[in-house]
Amino acid sequence: MSSNQLLTNSYFRLMLAALLSAATSFNVYSEIRPERLLLATQEWRPYQYIADGKMQGPGIEKLKCIMKVLKQPYQITMSDWDKAQISVEIGEQHAFFLASQNAVRDKYADYSSPVMKQVWSWYTLSDSIDTQSDIFKEKVAVTAIFGSNKWLWLHKAGYRVEKKPRRSTTLIELLLTGEVRAVLANDFVMEDAIKTLGVRHRAITRQILKEKPLGAYFSKKFTKQYPLFLSEFNQAITQCEER
Q1: 1.10.10.60, 1.10.150.130, 3.40.190.10, 3.10.20.90: which CATH number matches 119-211?
Q2: For the ranges 4-18, 103-117, 138-152, which has the lowest average pLDDT?
Q3: What tens digit of pLDDT does each residue of 113-124 get?
Q4: CATH number attached to the domain at 37-115+214-241
Q5: How far apart are CA 39 and CA 96, in angstroms?
Q6: Cis amide leading into 98 (omega within 30)
Q7: Is the dihedral of CA 92, 94, 100, 103 positive or negative?
Q8: Is 95 left (phi over 0), alpha (psi -120 to 50) or beta?
Q9: Which residues of 78-96 are buried (b: 16+ CB within 10 A; e: fewer)?
Q10: Whole-angstrom Cα distance, residue 166 to residue 146?
Q11: What is the pTM of this model?
């Protein structure tokens, strides 16, 4: 074989290697981000809600900021909270928000860094109720928003859980009618519900239970397909906190 043929063959081998490398790089890049991120949530005043035909609230604004930092196209679907979570578990949606972390969700989804703060508190009509006592846990009828982490936590901890309320205003109504004697709820949400119903704050007693940050849950199928996305999402959260 002549020297010219050797040079030609070497050139073609180099070109082929370069093309294969470029193709591989393109495939890797194409898997970094979804074409459109599908997010599921619930109407949960005042974090996120629909008013004048538009999704509003600090939860929505925070997600908008994160998506802007990432330059990521997205779509938010608002539905019942249990449906929003199931849609991620079965793969119809990529993630749901705002949510606190628990072991059940950890089985099928990966949790982000905290997006917003949250405080869980007991709400009762009497400051004489000892929410820390064994009698309270065993005998007193309590509730929380159905399908929420608080609802699941109450069941797991062995409280006497009654009713299946889906709105924060219903929590207060159940409390005022005596159908339950205590509700476990998010402080920010309850303040808004009390204001909406026009109930006097002095009629309701609050006892802080714990802090439970809120974030987003991405399905494990999604994080496997886009392994860099969650870390980038977490970095964007930090940038939005600084603004």
Answers
A1: 3.40.190.10
A2: 4-18
A3: 999 999 999 999
A4: 3.40.190.10
A5: 6
A6: yes
A7: positive
A8: beta
A9: bbebeebbbbbbeeebbbb
A10: 6
A11: 0.80
